[in-house]
């Protein structure tokens, strides 16, 4: 392989700026800069010339891989969200809005338990995501929600 004559343009790259301090140098100067970094932990070795043959996988060394079988059921106790503002703002307001339990009225009314929804049950696709994003853009999570706020929001967009 022929060595390039004259200054190289390595000094214009990020690595060249570190090696050559941004100064143009010829191939011998570049080699001197690299060798200056060599010590007990860093070594310089010139690569051997190739045989111009494409690399081939050695089939004898290729082991057959098998995937392990999942031994447990995955939990559904995590949350997917991209609204970092929800975490940064206070969450005390939400707790203030939660209904309080009336100890004296306990057992008077039978409670019908609704199925718990998870983030995985939210419809997929761009339209539902855009709809949800538009709702979060309009909400102020530091203030109580106006009971009439949702009127018109859910009927104006189609999933």
Please describe what this structure looks like.
This protein has helices at residues 14-20, 27-37, 84-88, 92-97, 126-138, 153-156. With 159 residues, the protein is mainly alpha-helical. It is elongated and about 90 Å long. It starts with 13 loop residues before the first helix and ends with a helix. Its EC number is 3.1.11.5. One of its GO terms (molecular function) is exodeoxyribonuclease V activity. This is Exonuclease V subunit beta.
Question: How are the SSEs placed, and which strands pair?
Answer:
Layout lengths: L13 H7 L6 H11 L46 H5 L3 H6 L28 H13 L14 H4 L3
Key descriptive features of the protein:
159 residues, mainly alpha
Question: How far apart, in Å, are the first and last alpha carbons?
Answer: 64 Å
Count of individual helical segments: 6
Strand content is under 5%
Which residues sit in consecutive blocks of at least 5 with pLDDT less than 50?
none
Gyration radius, in Å = 33 Å
What oligomeric state best describes the polypeptide chains here? single chain
Q: What's the total count of β strands?
A: 0
What's the SSE pattern? HHHHHH
- Cα shape: elongated
Main sheet attributes: strand count, strand direction, barrel closure: none
Q: Assign the structural class, choosing from mainly alpha, mainly beta, alpha/beta, alpha+beta, or little secondary structure.
A: mainly alpha
Helix content: 25-40%
Overall residue-averaged pLDDT value: 75
């Amino acid at each position: 392989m022929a060595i390039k004559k004259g200054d190289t343009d390595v000094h214009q790259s990020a690595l060249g700026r570190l090696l050559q301090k941004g100064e143009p140098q010829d191939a011998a100067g570049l080699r001197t800069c690299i060798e200056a970094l060599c010590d007990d932990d860093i070594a310089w070795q010139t690569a051997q010339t190739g045989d111009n043959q494409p690399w081939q996988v050695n089939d004898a060394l290729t082991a057959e891989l098998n995937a392990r079988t999942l031994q447990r059921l995955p939990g559904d106790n995590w949350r997917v969200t991209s609204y970092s503002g929800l975490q940064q703002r206070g969450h005390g307001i939400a707790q203030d809005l939660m209904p309080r339990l009336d100890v004296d009225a306990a057992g008077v009314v039978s409670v019908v338990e609704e199925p718990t929804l998870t983030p995985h049950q939210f419809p997929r696709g761009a339209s539902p995501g855009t709809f949800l994003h538009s709702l979060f853009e309009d909400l102020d999570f530091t203030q109580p929600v106006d009971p009439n706020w949702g009127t018109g929001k859910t009927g104006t967009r189609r999933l």
